[in-house]
Amino acid sequence: MPYYRRVGDVPPKRHTQFRQPDGSLFAEELMGQEGFSSDSSLLYHTHRPTAILSATVVTPFATTRAPNLPLKPRHLQTHKLGGGPSDAVLGRQHLLANDDVRLSYAVATAPSPLYRNAIGDECLYVESGSMLVESVFGALPLNEGDYAIIPTSVIHRLVPVSGEVRLLVIEASGHIGPPKRYLSRRGQFLEHSPYCERDLRAPSSPLLVEGTEVPVLVQHRRGWTEHVYAQHPFDVAGWDGCLYPWAFSIHDFEPITGRLHQPPPVHQTFEGPNFVICSFVPRKVDYHPLSIPVPYNHHNVDSDEVLFYTGGNYEARRGSGIVQGSISLHPSGFTHGPQPGAVERSLGVEAFDELAVMVDTFRPLDLCEPGLSVEDTGYAWTWARTV
């Protein structure tokens, strides 16, 4: 993260004696990235964070992947996914994946188990509803349109606040953060960035939970394990540092516009290992007198492009079958662009009212079985329709 936070009680000097009211020492835990060479935080536990009572191999769900063969654009209709009431961890339905990133969709009506992803960071996007990310760092409220970045190995659970929560989940093989070009060499957001520190939210107070023999699900590079902790891991009296869960609303993303159509990098919001995440938000569009506001036909030869349509009216795709909750996949090896008729309809338009999350990957994406089960199989041929 680009800046320091301090929450709860911490001693004036790190790695020194810090005692609880009964005279016993707090148990200090350093959580850090890249082997002590990158961002970190220090947490002060009332119990030992190392005390586990058992470890058991578990298989919460099967994961299947198949290559995009024959190569073609795909349209996945997430609102048609089956399954009953579930939570935002065990209820994830995997849609697209490669060795760098996995995209899933969840409809959560119940709290998740305590969970730790030891493979990489997770980015949650709330399509609808409200929820809490409860973690060793405290509670972080999320609402419609919020992104949340949960760093690798943070123990947390996802708790719907009221009713149903719909989520897009992006699981990385490494770390997710703001694009480097937005940051100074010391980590401050620069003036050309479309968002800044004032737009970010993080836990503001400790979350203390009592309990013994507490199970925690761990997703790791060899599978899944359930650890049973002697004491509840939410026992942190204070922490400080630059590594913690944080949230940012897509509604606070300030779009960059110009006289002529701007390319997708102006919408970039986060970057991860071999992928980027972009936000398309309501905005004024091109103001050259002869401009064409919708995108030109384009082929990003190094990327598979995924768009999650999450609000408004996506003008360039009218007539393709795209609706709220749709996910399109436009793979490398295919030239894509506006639907027939969209270019003419856009002439003279001054603003677009659209909301979408884009993920561009730099290695091809495979298709997962839940995604294939809700595919609109006629999508690839919609550019050939006459208007």
UniProtKB/TrEMBL annotation:
Coiled-coil ranges (or none): none
Tree of life domain: Bacteria
Cofactors that this protein relies on: Fe cation
Family assignment from sequence similarity: Belongs to the homogentisate dioxygenase family.
Organism annotation: Dactylosporangium maewongense
Name of the protein in its database record: Homogentisate 1,2-dioxygenase
InterPro entries: Homogentis_dOase, RmlC-like_jellyroll, RmlC_Cupin_sf
